[in-house]
Amino acid sequence: MSNTKMSQVASAKKALKEVFGFDQFRASQQPIIENVLDGINTLAIMPTGGGKSLCYQLPGIVFDGLTLVISPLISLMQDQVRQLKELNVSACVLNSALSSQEYQHNLDSIVSGHTKLLFLAPETVLQSSIISVLKNVDVACIAIDEAHCISEWGHEFRPEYRQLHQLVEHFAKAVVIALTATATPRVREDIKRQLLISEDAEFMASFDRPNLYIEVAHKEKPYQQAKAFINKHPKQSGIIYCQSRSGVDELATKLQNDGYKALPYHAGLNSQKRSDYQHKFVYDDVDIIVATIAFGMGINKPDVRYVLHYDLPKNIEGYYQQIGRAGRDGLNADCLLLFGYGDTGKIRYFIDQMRDAQQKRLATMHLGHMLALAESQECRRIVLLQYFGETNISQDCQHCDNCLNEGKEASDLTVHAQKFLSCIHRTGQRFGASYIADVLRGSNAEKILQNQHNLLSTYNIGRELTKKQWMTLSRQLIAKGLIEQEEIYGGLRLTQLAGDVLKGKAPFLALLQQASAVGSAKTKAT
Ligand code: ADP
Ligand code: ZN
């Protein structure tokens, strides 16, 4: 370790105590902060509440030069600036919402070297006027928050983020730290490639939040189910997520009429109302916020005791981020997802409306993963963590519905799995689940006849399951890693794990009840 680094680490520890009042780093923070202080571009992946801000705020304080913090949301930036100012750290924002006086004042503070941390939206920082100002300043560090927005493979792609690699080129001497709470392996690759971060400079804190109880229930009488769930947590703070603004308004009103202290929150409300309602929630004047996904980013309320998903989320990243807002104080919190096939149909309908073929495929893939989680009978935590690339967890959590519900025995679906897998193999590992299911069920679709797949030994050997049941099975096979889905065209391929099941060396245990529920559910979805 170099002397300068050692002294920087020492000043970082000192600042941790003196500025932030914390006794020690969290286990995941230390290596990240050391790396950044050492001038190594770094990718930090931590769950919501994991303590990402400190990973750039602290180097920002220790470095002599300026630290740029790129963040997508103005409200989030303002929050952080306020918090830093309370800690006597010189921080400011540049954005178009400032008065010209404030803007000039902030510029002066930046140019004079007084400001330590400067918060900007990606589109602001890339303006040529801003770049030329910053070129005259010693930019020591570039922190890119919500870095998953850089990747088209993520669930929140933002085109402005795509340009951020230019920043890295403009300020080649500055060290880059990218941070995100939600990044699948594919998205992580994208971030590293675009921001010149090497393989060994990626740090991933565990995504496990053991204090969250995770449950999925069939959506039958959602309002009754919601009330029963809320009533388990009287006078405690909770968030209810709905898919649409009208759904939010409707549910909030119903709850109010039934005597609950609930308020709505969505992007259709004016900003005054939004900040008022958010404030009331944070300060416990209301118990419940009924919201669209617009609610939550940057809200630091530690004692949210439950999160209810009234509708099916569109993807696992969003779902995990939303339930992550519960129990940030480390105490137990409950998360319930109401899962109905009608919601699946609605999401599919949205996807069908998408113009961009690539976006369409991605959205379909994301929905497939979400369904696999909802339909799974395995430990939910294992399925979730596997999705985020944590594959080293083998023990069931005993803190989710599937772990605790002993009645729901998984059935032996080995023979079905074998049929499905061998049909993938025989059709050349190029086709999607729907096609495979059609072959198994002996469909006379033109494409199947053209490909002469009606001549295969796996043709028409699977009429005992409905098409939907085969689709469910395929998601289970993906979730358990026996097959992979090619990202562009959705074709299925076998993985090494498939071999054991195909050869009869390992059983495939999964749900049959749920599959038949799929079959009998009345839904337009196909
Ligand atoms: P994230 O941005 O990852 O969601 P934050 O940076 O908002 O998380 O941090 C979450 C909470 O953890 C904050 O209240 C923060 O003050 C606290 N925190 C962060 N680092 C530490 C630490 N080393 N010791 C104690 N508390 C910490
Ligand atoms: Zn579990």
Automatic annotation (TrEMBL):
GO biological process: DNA recombination; DNA repair; DNA replication; SOS response
Annotated catalysed reactions: Couples ATP hydrolysis with the unwinding of duplex DNA by translocating in the 3'-5' direction
Domain Helicase ATP-binding, residue spans: 33-201
Residue spans crossing the bilayer: none
Molecular functions (GO terms): 3'-5' DNA helicase activity; ATP binding; DNA binding; four-way junction helicase activity; hydrolase activity; metal ion binding
A GO CC term attached to the entry: replisome
EC class name: isomerase
Family as reported in the entry's similarity comment: Belongs to the helicase family. RecQ subfamily.
Protein's name in the database: DNA helicase RecQ
